[in-house]
Write a structure and sequence with these properties.
Helices cover about 40% and strands about 15% of the residues. It is built from 13 helices and 12 strands. Helix 3 packs parallel to helix 4 and helix 3 crosses helix 6. The chain is globular and about 70 Å long. The mean pLDDT is about 95. The chain binds pyridoxal-5'-phosphate.
């Protein structure tokens, strides 16, 4: 038996809708499947405005072009994915790293204010593994200092914070539908604009459509479209949106399966105090949880390495996660040192993610739980 780390879900409708998109003869962007995905997301998330994008990375780039970031600073956790920092640098901004808290590896709200300067324009939060950041104090800080809050919801689609879906609480939410995410279309994303300012939405539409007012033209609001601003090509192909729509239709079912698997792990780790384990995922204390990741944190790097090796030899895939950005080659080029964020530097070597996906059958779940338990009992 084999337990794979991730198997992207396949419903019966992806091929059907892709075939339909091809038959409709419109495989570029902004056709009927893009509109279907956009409306579905606006309805499900209760978002004021969704723009479908080619990736979460591109949604982030679009935001930083939109808020004219050049020469301003963005505060973000170092324990994070490179797209966030890259999108800031590409738009001429400065990255300011901060700490995560030990409870859920999301941004430490107590460490943000000390990093705010007259140059700060935004706080970027990452909802790690689908667990929500504590948004209320973050929004209060943003109000106090007139900052934007950008939510990186790459991993947090369909998790919530106090009855609001993640990505709809800050000023902007950037989602990912990459193959590795709960709902996927290979490569894809979406931007939620949580402001009713029509001129801001129009500016975002223009950036997304190669710096043209093509979206207004498509709605029949202008007679022709032309170059109106800086912009890029962030609208996904209808083929991808057809795939995504099939997945969005069954989103709740996929969430249920993942939550069920998460509970299996949670019960296993609650039932036994394994001597090598320091902590493990506990879900989202603030609301609904999409069970994107189940992680364990070992007491030592050596335990984590032995655990992964032993699982691998039993055909179970388990992986570490982010290399904190301040430790990476680029982080060092920006002037950061290992000592700047010691917890992040340490936890990244001790954290291991376990297989979790909605295609896992009961016999594989039982096999995975049993093997993990046995390996952990031997790790002393
Ligand atoms: C926190 C975070 N942000 C951004 C991304 C990038 O998403 P995408 O591949 O859709 O650009 C990822 C990808 O895993 C991520 O984990």
């Amino acid at each position: 038996m084999k337990s794979l780390f991730n198997v992207p879900y396949k419903s019966n409708n992806e091929l059907l809708y892709i075939q339909d998109a091809i038959q409709l003869g419109k495989t570029g962007g902004d056709g009927c499947y893009t509109a279907l995905c956009q409306r579905k997301l606006e309805e499900v998330l209760k978002s004021n405005k969704i723009l479908m994008t080619t990736s979460c990375t591109h949604a982030l780039e679009l935001v930083f072009e939109l808020i004219e970031l050049k020469d301003f600073e963005v505060i973000m956790p170092s324990y994070n994915y490179p797209s966030t920092a890259n999108s800031v640098l590409l738009k001429g901004g400065k990255v300011v790293f901060t700490e995560v808290n030990k409870e859920n590896l999301c941004i430490d709200v107590h460490k943000i204010e000390e990093k705010i300067t007259p140059k700060t324009k935004a706080i970027l939060v990452v909802h790690y593994g689908g667990t929500s950041c504590d948004m209320e104090p973050i929004m209060a800080l943003a109000d106090k200092y007139h900052l934007y809050v950008v939510e990186d919801v790459a991993q947090g689609f369909l998790s919530s914070y106090k009855n609001k879906w993640l990505g709809t609480i800050g000023h902007f939410g950037c989602y990912s539908f990459h193959e590795t995410k709960n709902i996927n279309c290979g490569e894809g994303g979406a931007l939620s604009i949580n402001s009713i300012d029509h001129s801001l939405i129009e500016k975002a539409e223009n950036i997304r459509q190669k710096g043209t007012n093509r979206s207004a033209y498509d709605r029949g609001e202008v007679a022709f479209y032309e170059w109106v601003s800086k912009g890029s090509s962030y609208s996904p192909s209808e083929i991808l949106m057809a795939y995504l729509f099939a997945q969005l239709e069954v989103a709740e079912l996929l969430q249920m399966r993942r939550r069920d698997l998460f509970q299996h792990y949670y019960k296993l780790f609650q039932a036994t105090a394994y001597p090598s384990i320091e902590a493990f995922s506990s879900g989202n204390m603030y609301g609904a949880f999409n069970a994107h990741i189940f992680y364990v944190i070992f007491k030592t790097e050596n335990y984590a390495r032995c655990f992964m090796e032993q699982l691998r030899s039993n055909n179970i895939n388990a992986y570490t996660h982010f290399i904190p950005l301040h430790l990476s080659k680029m982080g060092k080029n920006l002037g950061y040192h290992k000592e700047d964020f010691p917890y992040e530097a340490s936890v990244c070597k001790r954290l291991v993610r376990l297989p979790i996906h909605s295609m896992m059958e009961q016999d594989t779940i039982d096999f995975t739980m049993k093997e993990i338990h046995e390996v952990l009992m031997r790790l002393k």
